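## tool: complex_structure
## caller: assistant
## args:
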Amino acid sequence: MSIRIKFLKDVRIENPYLIVGFPGIGYVAKFALDYIVEKIKAEKFAEIYSYSFPSFIIVKSNGLAEPIRTELYYSNNFIFITGNAQPITPEGQHELSDFIISELMRKYKISMIYAMAAYVVEGRVEEPKVYGVVTDPLLIEFLKKYGISPMSGGSISGANGIILTYAKEMGIPAVCLLSETLPYTYGYYADVKAAKALVEVITSITGIKIDMTDIEEKAKGFEIALRKFKEAEETTIKEEREKEWKRDLTYLW
Amino acid sequence: MSIRIKFLKDVRIENPYLIVGFPGIGYVAKFALDYIVEKIKAEKFAEIYSYSFPSFIIVKSNGLAEPIRTELYYSNNFIFITGNAQPITPEGQHELSDFIISELMRKYKISMIYAMAAYVVEGRVEEPKVYGVVTDPLLIEFLKKYGISPMSGGSISGANGIILTYAKEMGIPAVCLLSETLPYTYGYYADVKAAKALVEVITSITGIKIDMTDIEEKAKGFEIALRKFKEAEETTIKEEREKEWKRDLTYLW
Amino acid sequence: MSIRIKFLKDVRIENPYLIVGFPGIGYVAKFALDYIVEKIKAEKFAEIYSYSFPSFIIVKSNGLAEPIRTELYYSNNFIFITGNAQPITPEGQHELSDFIISELMRKYKISMIYAMAAYVVEGRVEEPKVYGVVTDPLLIEFLKKYGISPMSGGSISGANGIILTYAKEMGIPAVCLLSETLPYTYGYYADVKAAKALVEVITSITGIKIDMTDIEEKAKGFEIALRKFKEAEETTIKEEREKEWKRDLTYLW
Amino acid sequence: MSIRIKFLKDVRIENPYLIVGFPGIGYVAKFALDYIVEKIKAEKFAEIYSYSFPSFIIVKSNGLAEPIRTELYYSNNFIFITGNAQPITPEGQHELSDFIISELMRKYKISMIYAMAAYVVEGRVEEPKVYGVVTDPLLIEFLKKYGISPMSGGSISGANGIILTYAKEMGIPAVCLLSETLPYTYGYYADVKAAKALVEVITSITGIKIDMTDIEEKAKGFEIALRKFKEAEETTIKEEREKEWKRDLTYLW
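## result:
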């Protein structure tokens, strides 16, 4: 079988809430999910292996091999879903999303799904806003109750979006929460500010209580690093323009 | 399973006629199909989900998630097939076409299939002509009865064409009707004039009666928009040529 | 199922010889195979449909739809295998080759397989030579008996080569015969000279008797067309060089 | 089935050690594995065929066709795994790695897996160092016992790395040994020095006794060839720079 789940522990949960955060744009959703999992000490109980993951193995700093896989954690009646990569093909992303929902539905039923994602916006975002996308018109009111604006068009790519397809097909209420992020790539760094906004919304909706100190600290650090990055970028652009201008002059004389 | 059908309603149809219009070149076939479905108030009774659809979810203006899927509508003994996307791989297009025919054949039998498509032609088309491609030599006469010229060579790409492969394999008579369209992309706009020509032919063949007022209005609007677009394009080309010509002069002097 | 065979006729053959000629480089193998099939009036008895074929349907000049498929013809104890396209993915080419062998082996057993292919050589080939590649060392002697030199290294791509993989796995003796062809693309035209050389070798090995007049005529026509093409090409190259030379002069003065 | 194993011989091995060396960077792992197999006269007992191998057949210098396949050799309680190519898709590499482990686990159980690979480093490596990556923290001590440094981050691509994913999933202890190699491509030549280092480590760990004379000779030859190659490269770079510099002068005057 090209996809399968390996249970590490027999967990008894009934009608759990799923919280999904696969690595994606700006690493926002994964950072937010990892933070919650760490702070509430959620326990890993299952792993999903798929042929559609990238074909390498990660090497950790101590020489330990880390396979590419999806990880499932739980705490109370919450299941947290993340992993170190998304499937590399569209078919693989469909298969993984469908597999997660059908396996967990069959075993535990599912009350509701919260997927997290990032929403790229141009320009400076002082405080990233969180938007919502829902599988059922009734959920729009639910969003508004928590001050979340419905996203007004566009699309959500990858497993964090596609999971709503299979939720909707199965009739499971699902919400995708998207935090504003900037169109930058930060290498291996996550947009912590955007992640923090997601954590705030998710904890507010679900009633999960967590210590926000660490993520607030990191968000501030990210803010400073980003400012420096942008200043450096502007300096570079300015210098480039001056160089070009001088080159143009050379041509003229 | 990587493809599956979800029935929303138990429909009793016997030996239905299939009318197929997937989104393709100039959005012609889909626009035509949607128009007929809307005007005769055909009812959606099934959806097809496939792993080979693009891996995103569409967000509508009200924040509602719309999965990529194939939709099946019915009215009397007609089944209408469309969707918001085609599978992104050739394998996926084959699988979907084969799946539609084998599922509907098994459940209802199929009398005949009318697929719609667009046929790109160079130059100005005052009134788009509709061409026909058939799975059986006997159907050539059928085309001529309705004044439809057989297409004289070439190929038809995508699900609107491939469905004839599986119709022919299963021995189901099938016709693909192709409306002339211009080699332009209109962004999100459909070539309504080409779609109108398809609607006229399909309704004439099937005896489906529908109000053409709206599509005629939109076709006129499209005609005007297209004329403006072409004028703008010609102006741009002229200006570009003049610019180039001036640049050439600069080099000479 | 993503690949399947449709029998048009119940044929009783025992331990047949397979002759394989899929369209490939210079259309050589297919042209050779089609010529033999036509001349000995071999009868089509089966078709293979696969999701890995290109996703379009061919339109013939009379408006008839021709699906992409593999076609199986027979005459006496020979089965001829060709089609209007090869699968577009490596996986698809493996699957088709494996499927052909396992289906025909199960139903009829197979005595031996002759696959045809083209071998691109640089420079002018007065009379294209035919090389052989075999699945069993014992077959080298067999080749020499018919004056066929063993190919001395390299590889054979596509279904005409891959079929030897599954022949060898199943223990069926198989030979691939490759005719020298030039590194040109002739658009829709086949390298008839190369095809003629294959037909001569295949008929000599198998004892199939066919009239060679037509292919000899066409090979002569091809020869003349090719000579003109090469002259035109040389003229173009000469003119291009002169143009460049003049341009260089312009820069110098 | 798109992947399958063909047993050439019924071998009775219990809890074997797997030594894996697929062709990869610098042909290092394959060269090392082939050398051990040849020297200890390990016997081929199985072949694996997969649709995800490249779609061609290799032609040997005597005209014999060699299919792309994975080959399994054995000697005592060791199974050696190599082949003439890796699957061309990530899915295929996952499938092959998973298939090897599940087939051999089911049939023989597996005590441990040693995979070989290459590790690209910049700059001159006098004596290539061998690094280790392990599936279990307990194996780090094992590495150190043999003087092998744990690799400190990064990733291992292809079947030689991916096989650790499925080893870890199945709870089989596995080590990947990576020999330093230079970022050059040597065409069809292997980095024999890097391969020699792997052979030394593998034989030291497993207690396999083999004659090292040939590989030491070849490593010396490789060393000389590499030195010449680098000198030639440096000369070329120098000449190129001089040419550029002269061209620049031409522009200036």
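## assistant note: Chains D and B do not touch (no CB pair under 8 Å). The first strand of chain D starts at residue 3 and ends at 7. Handing back to user.
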